[in-house]
Amino acid sequence: MKKLFRLLCLSLLVLSFASYAYAQEEIKIGVIYPLTGPLASTGQVLLEGAKLAAEIVNGNYNLNMPLAKGQGLPNLKGAKIKLVTGDHQGKPEVGMAEAERLITQEKVVAIVGCYNSSVTATASQATERLGIPFVNESSTSPTLTDRGFKWFFRTTPHDDLFSENFFMFLRDLSKKKKLANNTVALFAENTLFGTDSVKFQTKYAEKYGFKLAGTVLYPAKSTQLTSEVQKLKGMNPGVIIQTAYIADAILSMKTYRELNFAPTAILANDAGFIDPEFVKSLGKDANYILSREVWAKDLTKKKPMIKTVADMFEKRTGKPMDGTSSRAFTAMIVLADAINRAGSTEPAKIQDALLKTNIKADQLVMPWDGVKFDPKTHQNVLGKGIMVQVQNGEYVTVWPFNLATKEIIWPFPKWEGR
Amino acid sequence: MEGVLAQTLVSGLLIGFLYALVAVGLTMVYGVMDVVNFAHGDYLMLSMYFSYWFFILFGMDPLFSLPVIVLIMFGIGIITYYITIRPIINSPMLSQIFVTFGLLILLRGIAQFLWKVDYRMIPETLVSGSFNLGGIFIGRPQLVAALGAILCSGAILWFLKKTKAGMALEAVSEDKEAARLMGINSDRMFALSWGIGIASVGVAGVLLSNFFYVFPEVGGGFCLIAFVVVALGGFGSVVGAFLAGIIVGLVEVVSGYLIDPSFKFMFVLSLYLAVVFIRPQGLMGRK
Q: Does ipTM top 0.85?
């Protein structure tokens, strides 16, 4: 009896020790976001997105996405991922130092970050030098993936692709609806955001066979846009593609109405047109504007999984999920999936696994066609934006057509009949 | 082409009247007491917020809240004078600049603290939309603003030229000492000029809020234009500011249309430079 008891004790001890070691297995992943400073609120949202992804990977959830079912990473004996945070305050030099600290002192196996394109640029230099994989979730400057970096991967589509989306949308639409004519006018504020956008839009207008009626650039702090809208009116374009921040977005809409100018469509380049203030200030006059977006709340209607994840996010943070948190979430899932397939925490093996990433559209909370990295640039080639339209004061998805929740209202109605 | 140009001229004229009204208040304060008020645009911001809140809280359309806000702004002008300007009236110009500049920062800070940095706009105003006049579209709120600006500037001019108090103001602006010897209380005249100056920018703010959004820094852009207008029209001249306002509005819109909108401010500022070179005292200024 005594012997049996001893054996039992011993086996219990061994078992508990084993499970102890088992539970201790943690894989550290660095996340670098602007957690203080002027972008602090955005940084928190990003971090919450990444944390939710880690929670889903570590716990057992019945969701159709990599690693949701079962606890932890199965190929690493159920190891859990642990996020170690770094704060770059929106400063490129701090971002780089944080990346170095996380790698050399915290021994993270990979890094996710950094939101601001400028910070992502410097932090990824550190990871490149130290040979650690870096997955970027939402920096959209196209040059980031043109640097030939071996350790840098980007899941979000970048500005160049977003610009192409306008014309993909118009091409798709021309099969369903009538375009008044094949001309496009570009209308943008004249800082980096506007001028860069115009550059890409010009490139794709030509590629997709649209005629450029003209380009109007204006000082971002204009107190009135009358002459600009007059010029546009004179060009008589079928479609206007407009890049503006919130103030000039509101002002331009007021001026369109004042001068009774209604082209077939106004396609807006995100930013000012999707600011919550836009619909609030303009009321009914904001209706029928089309804008590109990275994510929309009503996607949840088409993909039930998005709703589950969005609800979990809202329950955690009290804030609705948006294009920022959903992208941070997705980057973390993509990285965890690669580490699991690598079956190791060795950087070279994770890098190799990232290159072989192939996540399907229905496994994502994004409106993308999937995640697959270009072998050379390491840019996700299946990323895609969506087009939303303001209908009755709400943003609804109207393109890609398979994700649309509402039929597009086309053409842009004349002002008098409203 | 003619139609478009006519439309452009009309639009330029409409915004020009408003620029004029903003500048009239600025030039008055300068004319009477030689103090440049850098915070002038921020009083514009203040009255736009008043107009916004009167609408949101009491449902009062800007056209109805206008008289109330003008009175409030008049009071604020006088209070500003007694608290901040009076102590530095005989100080060197540099300290006066610092005080009004400090006022600018203070007002923006208060606005940002109280009302956040959001862009706000009155959603449904009594006058809205536009009408078609022989192929030219005229925005109703813009037209109301232009008419209001003309009336208000006219009233100020009438006050200065035809009333006793107005003539006393003019006397002070011409020669403080002589005016004092004639028994004019210059201190009260200064306060009055601040009151009227701020009230007139208050009118501009309310009219502007009919079709423009308000945010803490909204005054900056208008104030810069007001300075150009004042310098162009001649420092201290109400009639000059009025004419210059119209000219600036026209130049901005027409050059933007004919040449390139990116450079519209360049043309406005070049015009100003040209005037400074050829006629340094401005269009209607005294030597």
A: no
Residuewise pLDDT in 10s, chain A (418 residues): 566 556 555 555 555 544 444 444 799 999 999 998 777 878 888 999 999 999 999 999 999 999 999 899 999 999 999 999 999 988 999 999 999 999 999 999 999 999 988 899 999 999 999 999 999 998 888 889 999 999 999 999 998 888 999 999 999 998 888 776 789 999 998 877 888 889 999 999 999 999 999 999 998 778 889 889 999 998 999 999 999 888 889 999 989 988 889 999 999 988 789 887 888 888 888 999 999 999 988 888 888 899 999 999 999 988 888 888 999 999 999 999 999 999 999 999 999 999 999 999 999 999 999 999 999 999 999 998 999 999 998 899 998 898 899 999 988 999 887 7
Domain range enclosing B9: 2-116+135-278
User: How far apart are the CA of A59 and the nearest CA of chain B, in angstroms?
Assistant: 40
Q: With CB atoms and an 8 Å threshold, state whether A259 touches B253.
A: no
For residue A214, give the chain B residue with the closest CA: B260
The shortest C-alpha distance from A226 to chain B (Å) reads 7
B285 located within any domain:
no
Domain assignment present for B70: yes
The CATH number assigned to the domain holding B263 equals 1.10.3470
Architecture of the domain whose range is A22-157+301-371: 3-Layer(aba) Sandwich (3.40)
Domain ranges, ordered by start, for chain A: 22-157+301-371, 160-293+386-403
Q: Is the dihedral of CA A196, A228, A221, A248 positive or negative?
A: negative
From B4, B15, B124, residue closest to A224, measured CB to CB: B15
Assess A91–B contact: CB distance below 8 Å, yes or no.
Answer: no
d(CA A123, CA B187): 62
Which token pair is A321?
């999920």
N- to C-terminal Cα separation, chain B: 42
Residues 351-370 in A contacting B (C-alpha not used; CB under 8 Å): none
Report the SS3 class of residue A183. Answer: strand
Distance CA A4, CA A264 (A): 86
Is domain A160-293+386-403 annotated with CATH 3.30.830.10? no
The number of beta carbons lying within 10 Å of the beta carbon of residue A180 is 13
